[in-house]
Design a protein that fits this description.
This protein is of the alpha+beta class. The chain contains eight helices and four strands, in the order βαβαββαααααα. The chain has a four-stranded mixed β-sheet, with helices on one face.
């Protein structure tokens, strides 16, 4: 059975939970990271050398990096799922947007999220938060423009690209600051909320 290490309040863990639930796969989740600790043990560092979450364990195989875990789950357990299309160009496009999420959005949105949600107001670096919001907004504007032509990031069907971005768009629309209108991005977010696995695992209160 798949064992997923990581607290469910982590966006990188939440996206993996969403996929597992979307596919109806059995798994065990172990709280780790944040207040739960457990990521500095030799066993955990052998799975994830940075001590971050998530980590996946299945029999004698382990894996880290959330988007790599998404790809592995589909390859290993849902090879014909439209979430990870087999056609070469479609799959490459999905992977490009998954990488774009990690390399272009994650750092900026993480600074904004931690600053506004997890750090007390008197301890915030407001200049850093504002700069991060501006950079994240630039990335979300790219998604908004992309979603003007089709309902999901890669086309007419939901894919791993949407799962990679999904927990972050929930945070984006629910953090307390003024943002520019992004109607197509917001419409996509509403489509995600209509999926039970997303709503249950990625759309809770911000903590």
């Amino acid at each position: 059975m798949i064992k997923l290490w990581g607290r469910n309040t982590s966006s990188n863990v939440a996206k993996v939970i969403w996929l597992l639930e979307e596919l109806g796969l059995q798994y065990q989740r172990v709280d780790a990271g944040g207040s739960f600790g457990g990521t500095d043990t030799p066993h955990y560092r052998a799975m994830n050398p940075l001590g971050l979450v998530p980590a996946l364990e299945e029999d004698d195989f382990t894996l880290f990096e959330s988007n790599a875990i998404l790809r592995y789950i589909c390859n290993a357990h849902a090879a014909h799922s439209t979430l990870y299309p087999q056609a070469l160009h479609a799959r490459a496009t999905v992977e490009a947007w998954m990488d774009f999420q990690q390399t272009s959005l994650s750092r900026h949105q993480s600074i904004a999220f931690h600053g506004l949600v997890r750090i007390a107001p008197e301890k915030r670096d407001n200049a850093a938060i504002a700069a991060a919001i501006n950079e994240a907004a630039r990335i979300w504007a790219i998604l908004d423009a992309r979603l003007a032509s089709h309902p999901y990031i890669v086309g007419d069907d939901i894919t791993l690209a949407d799962i990679a971005f999904g927990p972050h768009v929930h945070r984006w629309f629910n953090m307390s600051f003024e943002r520019l209108a992004a109607p197509d991005l917001h419409a996509w977010y509403q489509r995600l909320l209509a999926r039970p696995a997303f709503k249950a695992n990625c759309a809770g209160p911000l903590v």
